[in-house]
């Protein structure tokens, strides 16, 4: 597709095929094949559409009849069966022969479900199975929970066994047997680390991690199995099963989005909401697929039997279609491009639709009300706990000269300072108001920001001004001493870094930051440096690289860190010049450009060196891993996507060689 740019030159519009876009395209395509039923004459169409007959609407006048068009090939007469003999409901009132041909055609296409007539006892049995399998799908969440706990137990036992083995071999053992055992264990450990590294890698840029895709496919297949198991040939049973299992997944879906510090899944898995939110997205996609199948199967039945207009006037159909439409809007607005265009619009639609669909489902059918009540209870409980954990304070806003950065200083009660000081790298959610506090609507639309520094009774945030209302409102109050803005601070949150655990398990630590991503890395660096102060030669284990646009952006770090960079040759700062840091790394990463000679200067921050140009990430990684062949390395990164991909690719070469690596990545815009 071509278009004219602002200069009048013609060019091509670039589309990025990511996981969200692929999901929306496939879902809309399959739904179209199932419901609209435009004739498509290739075998694959019968995989996606309900392979009954091809339908066309004959409308010579308003209110024309619904007709059927059959395939050109004749149907074997031996397959024709009467509706009365088989107990099937009528598919067309116009002709019994036409119905029998339809039955034969479905048999030819190996379609297992048909419109059947059931007695009252059979309907009661179907209802019991529907409720039973919905409960099974909800209780299935216990499987990954228990599996994770078993995995942690095995890792703990293996670590204890490893320490005991080292102590035992010190007493003496056959050198040949010892070397053989060590060789086997090293090979197994190397393969395990390589597998974990591969699972945590992207399928391709913007398509998500392999491990998440595998887990998503496995979970979707399990739920689809629950949808079709023991449904027999009853078309309505499988149709209803899609809807009941989708509704049973809603409490799990909402639980994955809970943000308070007492979130059950966050506590069980030892993580935070920013990690669980990816699984929330996956669960939402699967629920959308099930709801889409539920709606498509029902609409197909209405079309086949010619009662579409009549049934659309009933409450279940109206509420069902409304819910399907709202969920479709929610899915479309949640794709990455929409979130980047306006996070506030995405979040408002997400929250509003997520609340509106609950009463709609409540009145859709009485059998879903238990799951609606569970979901609503989780949502209300999460909001109450988050509100209790929120403080309202006035702030001081300062604009850093010659940059688009804002420094926000917030006074924190003494009772809460310890939570901020406990672990570095945490973040808070902030909403801004010019009055005495944030209104209910503003509080729902808070934005996350990383805590750059914690001092006595005060935390400091660093923000890059964007076009959004939060940073623009703060910008209007920059460098003012009157009419200070009032904000709500919720948190802290995040899978913060356990300094004692990192320094005890890993021999060397590499920190890499890009642009504003230093707000996460610098607190980690400060905590590690303070930990190494009491260790002889400990500072040699720590390497820090920071790439940013200009020297002016280092000013805030020079003030906050208070000479913590001084006389440290392992701290390297790179000035990429004007323009976007993300653009700089994208061009270099895809074009394979080599970096030329760098000009160095001293004294940028407390005596540390600054280089002009991009950092050579491969050289930095190789230097970190080349000290000793058996050292384990922890790598922390925060910055643009492409910079992180390049860094991870270089680290991956050493993982393939058998090195033990801990990788922690936080993604920020530059």
Automatic annotation (TrEMBL):
Keyword Chloroplast (UniProt): no
Keywords: Electron transport, Ion transport, Membrane, Oxidoreductase, Transmembrane, Transmembrane helix, Transport
Membrane topology (UniProt): Multi-pass membrane protein
Coiled coil: none
GO terms of molecular function: ferric-chelate reductase activity
BP GO annotations: reductive iron assimilation
CDD domains in UniProt: NOX_Duox_like_FAD_NADP
Gene Ontology cellular component list: membrane
Membrane-spanning residues: 12-34, 133-151, 282-303, 315-333, 345-363
Classification via Gene3D superfamilies: Nucleotide-binding domain of ferredoxin-NADP reductase (FNR) module (3.40.50.80)
Pfam families registered for this protein in UniProt: FAD_binding_8, Ferric_reduct, NAD_binding_6
Limits of the FAD-binding FR-type domain: 384-499
Taxonomic superkingdom: Eukaryota
Main localization (coarse): membrane
Subcellular location: Membrane
Listed SUPFAM superfamilies: Ferredoxin reductase-like, C-terminal NADP-linked domain (SSF52343)
PANTHER family listed in its UniProt record: FAD-BINDING FR-TYPE DOMAIN-CONTAINING PROTEIN, NADPH OXIDASE
This protein's name: Ferric reductase transmembrane component
Taxonomic source organism: Penicillium chrysogenum
Record lineage: Eukaryota, Fungi, Dikarya, Ascomycota, Pezizomycotina
């Amino acid at each position: 597709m071509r278009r004219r740019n602002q200069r009048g030159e013609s060019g091509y519009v670039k589309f990025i095929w990511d996981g969200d876009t692929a999901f929306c395209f496939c879902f809309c395509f399959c739904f179209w094949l199932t419901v609209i039923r435009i004739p498509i004459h290739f075998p694959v169409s019968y995989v996606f559409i309900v392979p009954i007959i091809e339908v066309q609407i004959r409308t010579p006048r308003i209110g024309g009849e619904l007709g059927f068009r059959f395939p050109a090939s004749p149907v074997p007469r031996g397959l024709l069966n009467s509706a009365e003999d088989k107990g099937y409901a009528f598919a067309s009132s116009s002709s019994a022969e036409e119905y029998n041909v339809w039955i034969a055609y479905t048999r030819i296409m190996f379609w297992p479900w048909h419109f059947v007539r059931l007695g009252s006892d059979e309907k009661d049995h179907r209802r019991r199975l529907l409720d039973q399998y919905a409960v099974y799908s909800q209780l299935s969440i216990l499987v990954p929970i228990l599996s994770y706990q078993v995995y942690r137990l095995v890792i703990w036992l293996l670590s204890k066994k490893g320490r005991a083995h080292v102590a035992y071999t010190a007493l003496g053992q056959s050198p040949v047997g010892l070397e053989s055992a060590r060789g086997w264990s090293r090979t197994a450990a190397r393969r395990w680390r390589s597998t974990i590294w591969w699972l945590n890698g992207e399928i391709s840029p913007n398509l998500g991690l392999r491990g998440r895709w595998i887990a998503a496919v496995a979970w979707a297949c399990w739920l689809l199995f629950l949808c079709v198991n023991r449904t027999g040939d009853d078309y309505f049973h499988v149709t209803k099963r899609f809807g009941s299992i989708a509704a049973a997944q809603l409490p799990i879906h909402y639980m994955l989005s809970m943000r308070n510090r007492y979130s059950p899944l966050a506590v069980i898995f030892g993580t935070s909401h920013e990690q669980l939110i990816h699984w929330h997205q996956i669960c939402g996609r699967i629920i959308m697929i099930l709801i889409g199948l539920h709606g498509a199967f029902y609409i197909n039945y209405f079309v086949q039997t010619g009662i579409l207009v009549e049934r659309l006037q009933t409450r279940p159909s109206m509420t069902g279609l409304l819910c399907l439409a709202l969920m479709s809007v929610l899915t479309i607005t949640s794709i990455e491009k929409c979130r980047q265009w306006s996070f506030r619009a995405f979040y408002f639609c997400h929250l509003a639709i997520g609340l509106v669909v609950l009463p709609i489902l409540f009145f859709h059918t009485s059998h879903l009300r238990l799951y609606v009540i569970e979901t609503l209870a989780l949502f209300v409980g999460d909001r109450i706990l988050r509100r209790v954990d929120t403080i309202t304070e006035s702030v001081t806003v300062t604009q850093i000269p010659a940059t688009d950065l804002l420094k926000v200083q917030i006074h924190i009660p003494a009772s809460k300072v310890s939570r901020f000081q406990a672990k570095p790298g945490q973040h808070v959610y902030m909403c801004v108001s010019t009055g005495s506090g944030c209104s209910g609507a503003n509080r729902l639309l808070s934005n996350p920001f990383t805590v750059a520094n914690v001092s006595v009774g005060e935390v400091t945030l660093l923000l890059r001004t964007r076009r959004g209302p939060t940073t623009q409102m703060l910008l209007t109050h920059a460098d003012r001493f009157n009419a200070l803005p009032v904000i709500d601070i919720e948190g802290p949150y995040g899978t913060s870094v356990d300094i004692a655990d990192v320094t005890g398990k890993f021999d060397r630590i590499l920190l890499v930051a890009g642009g504003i991503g230093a707000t996460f890395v610098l607190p980690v660096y400060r905590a590690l440096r303070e930990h190494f102060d009491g260790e002889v030669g400990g500072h040699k284990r720590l390497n820090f690289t920071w790439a940013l646009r200009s020297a002016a952006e280092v000013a805030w770090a020079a003030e906050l860190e208070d000479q913590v960079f001084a006389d440290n040759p392992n701290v390297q700062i790179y000035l990429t010049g004007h323009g976007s840091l993300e653009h700089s790394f994208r061009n270099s990463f895809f074009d394979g450009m080599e970096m030329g000679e760098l000009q160095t200067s001293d004294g940028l921050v407390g005596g540390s060196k600054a280089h002009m140009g991009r950092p050579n990430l491969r050289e930095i990684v190789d230097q970190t891993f080349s000290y000793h062949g058996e050292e384990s390395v922890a790598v922390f990164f925060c910055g643009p996507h492409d910079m992180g991909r390049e860094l991870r690719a270089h680290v991956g070469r050493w993982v393939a060689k058998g090195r033990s690596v801990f990788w922690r990545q936080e993604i920020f815009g530059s």
